[in-house]
Design goal:
nine-stranded mixed β-sheet, eight-stranded mixed β-sheet, 19 strands
Length: 383
């Protein structure tokens, strides 16, 4: 086993804390995120049109898959896979009936999928997929997998010996309809919602089983409004490329956004995917033109934001017109905005984030953000 490596841990008090993240599971990055959806063809059209994803690969009846259809879309380093089953009694169909459209696989790119499986299962992970080699004319990939929170799975993908379009069994997806990208670059973090009392258990899973470290902890005093509250622990891997905030509900006067998610998703799951951009004004402007709905930020938020964050490069009037929020930490500042749920169940949504040095998660915006979410909950009758 390799030696421990130090990972810097930032808190919002300004003090730098150092944690130990174990190096037994080196992760190169996020390989892909696979969602089980009711109609992959239509979902693919939506993500191309509204988010600017590009057609990459396809598998289905035409490629010999009699169980499901999958469309692969990509924008820079972000790769989405949208999968719909043919068999109404399959595990995929059960997942969709239970959860609606949602994230099933958070797939991690590793150099050795066999070793990743051995290391994590030896430390207590429940196996999902034994190491499996899959080949075609373009080479070989090795994949394995473990269970995490709820029905969410981590797959380990080893592709160093593969030169194909995506994975064996997929063919290139050619399309005459190719909307331009919106400037999305990579996945910044992915947030999981878990039941009351399970946040520490899941955080410990990531620490003990996957060698992650606790980067930041928020309690119900950090993340609360007059009516609702939640708690969160942000877990990160050794190189900082993978960050998983884990949320659980906290006591409040009304039903929190976490409880609403758990009610409609029917259990723990991925609440939102934060995607990074180098120009949030361009990205959000494009997405608004294409029909993406964002949470409304009260105008009074901008009355005091300059006092809190100081001088920034962007025009605050433009940020206000688009509803983009700003926060600052010791390293710099960030800009962020959140979409409304991207399906009819109030479950999965996206965060658009641009970091100007900041390594934090927008603590200064929590109150305004959660008040906006509560306003949506009230309209839905679920607050």
């Amino acid at each position: 086993m390799k030696d421990l490596t130090t990972v810097e841990n930032y808190t919002y008090s300004g003090e730098k804390v150092f944690e130990k993240a174990q190096d037994f599971l080196p992760i190169l990055g996020t390989d892909y995120v696979e969602m089980y959806v009711g109609n992959a063809k239509q979902a693919a059209h939506y993500y191309k049109t509204a988010f600017g994803f590009q057609s990459v690969a396809y598998c289905g009846l035409e490629t010999g898959d009699r169980e499901k259809t999958s469309y692969v879309l990509q924008q820079d380093k972000i790769r989405l896979v949208l999968t719909t089953p043919f068999n109404p009694d399959s595990d995929i169909s059960h997942h969709i009936r239970m959860h609606g459209d949602g994230v099933k696989f958070i797939s991690l790119w590793v150099d050795d999928a066999r070793k990743a499986f051995e290391e994590t299962t030896r430390r207590g992970a429940r196996p999902y997929l034994e190491p499996t080699a899959v080949k075609d004319a373009d080479g070989e990939i090795v994949k394995s997998g473990i269970h995490t929170y709820g029905d969410t799975i981590h797959l380990f993908i080893e592709r160093k010996n593969y030169k194909g379009i995506f994975l064996p069994g997929f063919v290139a997806w050619k399309s005459d309809y190719n909307p331009t990208p919106t400037g999305l670059r990579y996945i910044d973090h992915m947030v999981g919602n878990v039941n009351l009392g399970d946040m520490n258990k899941v955080a410990k899973f990531y620490e003990d089983v996957m060698g992650f470290a606790n980067l930041i902890t928020f309690d119900d005093k950090d993340i609360s409004t007059q009516f609702t509250a939640l708690m969160s622990k942000v877990m990160t891997n050794g190189n900082g490329r993978i960050k998983f905030p884990i949320n659980e509900p906290a006591a409040g006067l009304k039903k929190s956004q976490i409880e609403e998610f758990l009610d409609f998703y029917k259990g723990p799951g991925c609440q939102h995917i934060a995607v990074a951009t180098d120009n949030i004004v361009f990205t959000v402007s494009e997405m608004r033109k294409r029909g993406i709905e964002f949470l409304h930020v009260p105008g009074e938020y901008y009355d005091t934001v300059t006092d809190r964050v100081g001088i920034i490069e962007e025009d605050m009037k433009v940020l206000k017109s688009l509803g983009i929020m700003v926060d600052r930490d010791e390293e710099g500042y960030l800009l962020q905005i959140f979409t409304k749920p991207v399906e009819d169940r109030p479950t999965l949504f996206f965060e658009i984030i641009q970091r100007k040095g900041a390594k934090s998660f927008g603590k200064g915006n929590f109150k305004a953000l959660f008040e906006s979410i509560e306003a949506e909950q009230e309209r839905r009758g679920t607050l």
